[in-house]
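Researcher: Re-running this chain for the archive, since the previous output was lost when a drive failed. Same request as before.
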Amino acid sequence: MEDQQYLQEIIHRRLIDAKRSALVRRAKQAKGSVRKNQCRSGTAKDLLADLNG
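Model: Regenerated structure tokens:
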């Protein structure tokens, strides 16, 4: 039973680390997009206006 709990903790921590790594990658991509002026900021209303043409 203890071994299974230990294994569960290890898997849980690995999942947390994987999620953290994915978040860091996404943040770096976003920063790169901002630096290259490949994104814009605005309100939800602005977004809908852009999507509707």
